[in-house]
Please model this.
Amino acid sequence: MCRCTPLQRELYTGRISGPLLDRIDLCVDVPWVPPDVLGDERPQESSVAIRARVLRARDRQAARSDETGVRLNSLLKGRMLRQFAKLDADGRALLAAAVHRLALSGRAHDRILRVSRTIADLAGDADVRSEHLAEALQYRLLS
Model:
């Protein structure tokens, strides 16, 4: 377990340059799990179910490739990205606020849109909604 103070951790992560962080789509904090929780018998989603959901999301992305020539959300750029990750007014306001408040670059903006599109695909939604965008923004932040 890390014994660094919060300030020491913040100073260390501050050494990572902004341009490098712009190239990382997902930052996920994985907390330590106590031993008594590891053997927990509560029902969990099976790997088979998760795999099926991912394959359905990949099929949705592939179906868009007929129109775009781009098979994966991660490769969507420019006009195609804005077409297939179109946000409603609430989503645009949320993203604009995040870009302003977090001083996000254009590259970070587009990565958030791509991740939002993928989250919507995993949820089986044709449109990117504010909750997909909010989840993508959470993955953008380092703890």
